[in-house]
Design goal:
This protein is an alpha+beta fold. The protein has seven helices and four strands.
Length: 166
């Protein structure tokens, strides 16, 4: 039975829901899975010419997303929120599986997204050329480095890896 990833992503309500789509897709396409990850949200700054969407530090169990592009998307084109979050979470999740080469990860993300969601889907367009969306991801005419790079953990993020209720 083929999973309808477009519908699952459309029906996702939270970042945790989007991450469940990402994990299922990666397991199906790469036959790899990792549990026990946490999601941190942080102000990682802004640059109108480029942006840092998120990162994963090797040896950790935390994916960190930059709140700035997510906030900017909600102001400019809210319909980009899920495709963008899917794209960044997929990218960082593949890093968490041990793939460290940035070019290799970008290629995997594009290939996986195109196959699962189709060429015209916004997530596939992000994977093909995220720079084309910069005006919706970064505030124009202003750059700043975050004063407070504190990370806020999102509760209940990797919920399919939890087999009990505490």
């Amino acid at each position: 039975m083929r999973i309808d990833y477009r519908t699952r992503l459309d029906e996702a309500v939270s970042l945790a829901d989007i991450f469940e789509v990402v994990k299922t897709l990666v397991e199906e396409s790469m036959n790899k899975r990792r549990g026990g990850l946490m999601l941190g949200m942080a102000n990682l700054g802004n640059d109108p010419h480029g942006f840092l969407g998120g990162f994963f530090t090797t040896g950790s169990n935390v994916i960190v997303l930059n709140k700035i592009p997510l906030n900017r998307i909600m102001e400019t084109r809210p319909e980009l929120y899920k495709p963008y979050a899917f794209h960044v979470l997929l990218h960082e999740y593949i890093h968490s599986l041990g793939y460290l080469d940035e070019t290799e990860v970008q290629e995997k993300v594009h290939q996986i997204t195109r196959k699962a969601l189709g060429e015209e889907h916004l997530a596939t367009q992000f994977a093909a050329r995220a720079s084309g969306f910069i005006k919706h991801l970064a505030y124009p005419h202003v750059s700043w480095k975050a004063d407070d790079e504190g990370i806020e953990l999102v509760e209940g993020f990797d919920r399919s890896s939890v087999s009990y209720i505490a």
